[in-house]
Write a structure and sequence with these properties.
Blueprint: H1 3-8, H2 11-53, H3 66-69, E1 73-76, E2 79-80, E3 86-91, E4 96-106, E5 109-118, E6 135-141, H4 164-171, E7 176-183, H5 206-235
Helix pairs in contact: 2-5
């Protein structure tokens, strides 16, 4: 755009552009502030989960709240129900395979226990150690229906998520708790299923996002100052 074109640009156009720049700077700063609040929330969450997961094993909660009890370490007594385990698609640090889900009858209802991971070569029960009670592990909320890309299909016993209510219906079981237990590994190092594979990590990129938004606000502010100063010098 030539200097002549700039000179012909109406004053109101320049005013609108300046106003939009100011609005964008404000929006970028607000987004940066929001990411900083998210950063503080995420840090508190990580600290809370670490405390729950590695603390002394507690009893089952009276009223399960995912915000308060997810990843809580518990020890629970019960009797494993004599019914085929539910095998759920799994992707772990060991590789792809299956989670072995077995129902434990407790005084509060059916608690599904994720006994651990097995790969395809050892997915038959004769390759597994005998389930024992009490069981120690981490509480996880039920994952209903399936995943974003796949759905559970109880009719053909195909499972991609650990939906406790659906698993109980498929096995003809009674009242079921709305969470399951990721069990610790309780056998020899080479035995199956392989428990204790719960991933307790959280993506925490909020600081980098905040700095990005603040940087964009700074760049727009510099550009705004430049435009204002240039306009003043040209008018003199």
């Amino acid at each position: 755009m030539s200097d002549q074109d700039l000179a012909r640009r109406p004053v109101w156009v320049t005013a609108v552009l300046l106003m939009l720049s100011v609005v964008l700077i404000g929006v970028f700063v607000l987004l940066g502030n929001w990411q900083m609040r998210r950063l503080a929330w995420k840090q508190d969450l990580i600290a809370s989960v670490q405390e729950r997961a590695f603390g002394v094993a507690a009893d089952l909660p009276d009223n399960f709240d995912p915000e308060q009890h997810a990843y809580q370490r518990v020890m629970v007594q019960g009797r494993f129900v004599d019914t085929p385990a539910v095998l759920v698609k799994a992707v772990t640090e060991i590789g792809p395979g299956l989670w072995v889900m077995s129902p434990l009858q407790t005084d509060r209802g059916i608690l599904w226990v994720n006994r651990g991971y097995v790969h395809a070569d050892v997915k038959s029960p004769e390759n597994w150690t005998k389930a024992q009670s009490p069981v120690t592990g981490l509480l996880r909320p039920s994952a209903e229906n399936g995943t974003l890309l796949e759905r559970n299909d109880p009719a053909i016993d195909r499972w991609v998520s650990r939906d406790t209510a659906a698993m109980s219906r498929a096995r003809g079981l009674g009242a079921t708790l709305p969470y399951f237990l990721d069990a610790d590994h309780d056998g020899a190092s080479g035995s199956w299923p392989r428990g204790g594979l719960t991933v307790i990590t959280f993506n925490n990129s909020h600081l980098s996002y905040a700095l990005t938004w603040y940087a964009m606000a700074g760049l727009f502010a510099v550009a705004l100052v430049y435009v204002v100063r240039t306009g003043r010098s040209e008018s003199e």
